[in-house]
Structure formats: C-alpha cells, structure tokens
Amino acid sequence: MEINKNKEIQHCGTKPKKIAFGIAPLGIVSIGIVPMGVISIGVVPMGVISFGAVAMGIVNLSVVGMGIISAGITTMGVWEYSPNSQNHNHNHSKQILNSKEKNMFSNLFNTKEEAEKAALKQGCTGAHKMGNKWMPCKMH
C-alpha cells in the first residue's frame, strides 16, 4: 500500500507508476520497503530485477535471494553465486525427477543423521533444516 500526494491509499490493483518510492511501492522502478516492480530496490524487493536484503525475482543481488539468477550470501536459483555454494551452476533436473517419482514428503527426516544418509544416496553430502525436519544435501 502506498499513500500518494493527495493522501489517497493506493493498493496492488492500482496502475503502477514509472518510478515509485515508499512502503510497498508499485512501479516500473520501485524503491523502498517491500517494493514491487520490474526493477526493485529495497528491503524485501520483488521484481524481475531485485536488489536488496531479501530479494525475490528473476535476477537477484541480495543477502538472501530466490530466483533464476541469484547472487548473495544465501541464494537459491538455477544459477547462483554465494560463498556457501560449491557449484555455481545448479541443475535441479535430478531433484525434479525424484520429486515426481516420490511422495513430496519422502525427503523429510526427523534427524540430521537420517537426512545425511539419504544425501549420500542422492549423490550429495550434508543436510539442511526445513522447518522442524531435515532434508538431504547442504543446500535446498
């Protein structure tokens, strides 16, 4: 939601501005807290190109990024770069096939040790936390 010059509240259904600033601004270029747009810069940006703390979009440059191309500290994507990732080009097709063949929850384990054993069978190492359960491999 954004308040414009006339003190009117603008919601997500309104037409985006060319450049929008504020709290949850909606625009072609959006800058602020939770900006949404083609290019978003802010705390939690959501857009095609997102720069910020926790970014969600196609291309992300952020601390925590989720998208097709992600660069940052903790990233998830088809191509990702982060200090924690061992392989910067990830091919998730094996995981997608496994998820189609198996029950969605078959990769959730109660203990880290169980998940680490399953990781070895899947060709990766380590385990990561998913809620109060564990999943195989260091990264999702």
Q: What does it look like?
A:
The protein is 14% helix and 47% strand. The chain has two domains: 1-90; 92-140, no CATH class. The protein is built from two helices and ten strands; from the N terminus they run ββββββββααββ. The protein has 140 residues and is mainly beta. It is elongated.
Which descriptors would you attach to this protein?
single chain, 140 residues, mainly beta, 6-stranded parallel β-sheet, two-stranded antiparallel sheet, 14% helix, elongated
Tell me the domain tally.
Answer: 2
Global structural class = mainly beta
Given as residue ranges, the uncertain stretches (5+ residues, pLDDT < 50) are 87-105
Oligomer: single chain
Q: Give the tally of β-strands.
A: 10
Question: Could you tell me the mean pLDDT?
Answer: 76
Main β sheet profile: 6 strands, parallel
Order of helices and strands: EEEEEEEEHHEE
Question: What is the molecular shape?
Answer: elongated
Amino-to-carboxy terminus distance: 32 Å
* Rg over C-alpha atoms, rounded to the nearest angstrom: 19 Å
Q: How is the largest sheet built, in terms of strand order? A: 3-4-5-6-7-8
- Strand proportion: over 45%
Number of helices: 2
- In percent, how helical is the residue content? 10-25%
